[in-house]
Amino acid sequence: MRTEDLIEQMAATAEPVRRLPAPSVLALAWLVLAVALVSLVVLWQGWRPNLAGQLAEVEVLVPWLASILTGVLAVLAATHLAAPDRSARWRWVPLPAFALWVATLGGGCFAEWRESGDLTMAPGMDCLPEIAIISLPLSLLLFGLLRHAAAIRPVSTAVTGALAVAALASAGMELFHHADGALSVLVWHAGAVTLLVTGFALVGRPLFRLIAIRKPRFAR
Amino acid sequence: MAAAQNGDQVAYAALLRDLLPYLRAMARRRFRQAEEAEDAVQDILLTLHTVRHSYDPARPFRPWIVTIARRRIADRMVRLGRRAANEMLSALDDDETFSVPVTNSDMETAVQAREAVAAVADLPPGQRQAFELLKVQGLSLNEASAATGLSVTALKVATHRAVLALRRRLGN
After folding, report:
1. Which fold has domain B106-170?
2. Which of A80, B37, B39, B43 is most buried, most CB within 10 Å of its CB?
3. Interface residues from chain B to A (CB-CB < 8 Å)
């Protein structure tokens, strides 16, 4: 088909469209829903025993805050990367917070090992249902909001989106799930995050192709 | 563009017509063959149409369309590079030389893919091997795994990295 004819056909079928909200508005809306969802799970599961005492410890508080910061920056990055006119450099924005989170968790492990001389690790898979209940709806929602990224930056959007979901799920878990020791948290939380993010780096492109808004077909 | 988002078909057609020479110039800088450049322009237009709700009228239009255009051009170059590398390598495997004009002109098309072939050759050895086995020779993951002794996952990762590297190099 001649490009000029394609243009005429595109214009002739162009219905009014609803504009997407600005990336930061999308991110904020998603964060509100994330907080609501985590609150629901906390209501259902109950607060973790001695939560206030736990969060008063710097070794717990700093990584927890860093995980929240990672989640917030990562969802901002994802919504900006999905918009064609925003800088691709957004992909680096959550990195410092993520590094701080992993580093402070690692530091906690080291401190624990120096104090007690051994590191115990709890089997972590018992929290799988809670993880799934938080992260599945959050992922579906986020990737639904970001479908338009398929055409632009599928991989970096998928990776930062996955990081946002995983970091906030981890931060939420800390509120109700009793994890034993810094090593468990490092292995199960940061490990799961790394696994998820790597996974999404590999499947980002096909995933977004799958959920992409379909291109219109014009007669040839 | 803001008018087009509101359903103003006349404004939309006018915008696209104005955009056309600019997109063509962008595409022709990348593709030597006019048909390839024109296909890239149509890709860009279709993507613009599909994601036109993502444009924010409060912001400049140019960065928005330039990102979309670059993306579609880069994607097409990678696809083209794969196909061309395939043709070139199979041409190199032949011992005979041809003097028939038709085959010569085919060879010339393949020579245009030199850039792509060089890009493949410059990949790190592991990535190049995986890319050539899976994407050029068309082996299945299991066959390639048996041939190299590498795991399926390692091959997938290496191929993926190779594609990314090619996309980066040919996309710029």
Report:
1. Arc Repressor Mutant, subunit A (1.10.10)
2. A80
3. 4-7, 9-10, 12-13, 16-17, 20, 38, 41-42, 45-47, 49-57, 59-60, 63-65, 67-68, 71, 156-157, 160
pLDDT band at A199 (very low <50, low <70, confident <90, very high): confident
Q: Which two tokens stand for residue B153?
A: 């996952």
Residue A35 has pLDDT above 90, yes or no: yes
* CATH topology for the B2-86 domain: Rna Polymerase Sigma Factor; Chain: A (1.10.1740)
Handedness of CA B4, B7, B11, B17 (dihedral sign): positive
pLDDT of B94 strictly over 50: no
Cβ atoms within 10 Å of B123's Cβ, excluding its own: 20
Cβ-based contacts of B5 with chain A (< 8 Å): 16-17, 19
Are B22 and B66 within 8 A, CB to CB? no
CB B16 within 8 A of CB B3: no
The Cα–Cα gap between A30 and A23 comes to: 11
What is the helix (H) or strand (E) element at residue B30, kind and residue range?
A: helix B9-30
Residue B68 has pLDDT above 80, yes or no: yes
3-class DSSP state for residue B31? coil
Distance from C-alpha of B156 to C-alpha of A180, rounded to nearest angstrom = 36
| Domain parsing of chain B, residue ranges | 2-86, 106-170
For residue B131, pLDDT over 80 is answered with: yes
Q: Would the CB atoms of A85 and B59 count as touching at under 8 Å?
A: yes
Over residues A204-211, mean pLDDT: 83
- Confirm whether B2-86 and B106-170 share one CATH topology: no
Largest CA distance in chain A: 75
- Per-chain mean pLDDT for chain B: 80
Which residues on chain B are in Cβ contact (under 8 Å) with A213? Answer: 50-51
Cα(A93)–Cα(A106) distance, rounded to whole angstroms? 21
CB within 8 Å: A11 and B63: no
Residue keyed to tokens 């082996």: B139
Question: A179 in helix, strand or coil?
Answer: coil
